[in-house]
From TrEMBL:
This is Sugar phosphate isomerase/epimerase. The keyword Isomerase applies. Pfam families: AP_endonuc_2 (PF01261). Keywords: Isomerase.
Length: 271
């Protein structure tokens, strides 16, 4: 069964970005439950930033699941990426993500590697950067597998990363490097920029998809842009996708209205 999730950024020093709810765990979980979401996707400063037992208690109270945990704060707050030319920084990046994997695994939730993949370092080739990425993902995939969860890798659009931008490139990368514990994140915002045919890419590479980000072409909540959702929804159903459709979108025009818009659009296409 396809499930709905809403994003929640709990980092107090951040106030701008593609997350629907912000900062207040209790209030956000209450609103998510009242709207009918199945789960929440969390963005936290680290794997130790939140007390796991408290989170479990509050999720259980509201009948919600943890859909996934983002790792982007590792880059935003600490400047860590898996393709940094400095091996010490790469090690710190792996340790940071491993901590996030362990945190999410307590709830059966995967960690997502998006911005922490980095870019091609100055003076290095793309091949070198992809080798570093493959090495990091190989180590992290083994950690995730031992923790009983998958690891999610996100192809980003060309303006955010010059490594892997499409589901095709991502699936070929996983296959080539035998990264069987890792699945791809099909982010509809990034796909709108990079994919020739979003629905066809989902059909072609559906076996590699482990998570979906639900945002329109302008990264506002679905329905506020020009993404053609019917064929995309049909493709996800055809591949028997059974994971989360998670709203990583700007809180437009407000967090509450963005959440309502998202759940209404989810129900329109997936219920």
């Amino acid at each position: 069964m396809i499930k709905s999730a809403v994003t929640l950024n709990l980092i107090e020093t951040m106030s701008i970005g593609p997350w629907i709810f912000w900062h207040n765990l209790e209030e956000s979980l209450k609103k998510a439950a009242e709207l009918g979401f199945d789960g929440v996707e969390l963005f936290t400063a680290s794997g130790n930033a939140l007390d796991a037992s408290h989170l479990r208690d509050r999720l259980d109270f509201y009948g919600l699941e943890l859909a996934a945990v983002g790792t982007g704060a590792g880059k935003v707050l600490q400047g860590l990426t898996l393709t940094d030319p400095d091996p010490e920084i790469r090690k710190r990046a792996i340790d940071y993500i491993a901590e996030m994997i362990d945190f999410g695994a307590q709830f059966g939730a995967p960690a997502i590697i998006g911005s922490m993949q980095g870019n091609i370092p100055s003076g290095h080739s793309k091949e070198d950067a992809l080798d570093l990425l493959a090495d990091g993902l190989s180590q992290l995939g083994k950690i995730a597998k031992s923790a009983g969860v998958i690891l999610i890798y996100e192809p980003l659009n060309r303006y955010e990363s010059n490594l892997i931008n499409t589901l095709k490139a991502g699936s070929e990368f996983l296959k080539r490097n035998q990264l069987g514990a890792i699945r791809l994140l099909a982010d509809l915002f990034h796909m709108n920029i990079e994919e020739d045919n979003m629905a066809q890419s989902i059909l072609d590479f559906g076996q590699y998809i482990g998570h979906v980000h639900f945002a329109d072409s302008n990264r506002k909540p679905m329905g506020f842009g020009h993404t053609d959702m019917p064929p995309i929804a049909a493709a996800l159903k055809e591949i028997n996708y059974s994971g989360y459709i998670s709203a990583e979108a700007f809180p437009y025009p407000s967090p509450d209205e963005a959440a309502k818009q998202t759940i209404n659009q989810f129900k329109k296409y997936f219920h």
